[in-house]
Amino acid sequence: MIRVLIADDQAIARQGLHIILSAENDIEVVGQAHDGQEAVDMTAKLKPSLVLMDLKMPRLTGVQ
């Protein structure tokens, strides 16, 4: 099972990715972050296999 964390400051983008990814049998969306700092915190807590992260977000960018 691939565990995915979605990080994007736009709710519609997070929701769309969640719907698409959840349709796959071998993918589990374990969380959604609304900014870069929350993505870092959730990654430490949830230990996802993969983080899909927007590059331009508040507090910390996807690049940082």
Short description:
The chain has helices spanning 11-22, 36-46, and strands spanning 2-7, 27-33, 50-53.
Order of helices and strands: EHEHE
Unreliable stretches, pLDDT < 50, 5 or more residues?
none
Round the mean pLDDT to the nearest integer and report it.
92
Indicate the overall shape: globular
Based on secondary structure, the structural category is: alpha/beta
Descriptive terms for the model:
64 residues; alpha/beta; 2 helices; 3 strands; 36% helix
Question: What's the structural blueprint in terms of helices and strands?
Answer:
Layout: E1 2-7, H1 11-22, E2 27-33, H2 36-46, E3 50-53
Parallel strand pairs: 1-2, 1-3
Please provide a written account of the structure.
- This protein has 64 residues and is of the alpha/beta class.
- 36% of the residues lie in helices and 27% in strands.
- It contains two helices and three strands.
- It has helices spanning 11-22, 36-46, and strands spanning 2-7, 27-33, 50-53.
- It has a three-stranded parallel β-sheet with strand order 2-1-3, sandwiched between helices.
- The termini are far apart.
- The model has no long low-confidence stretch (mean pLDDT 92).
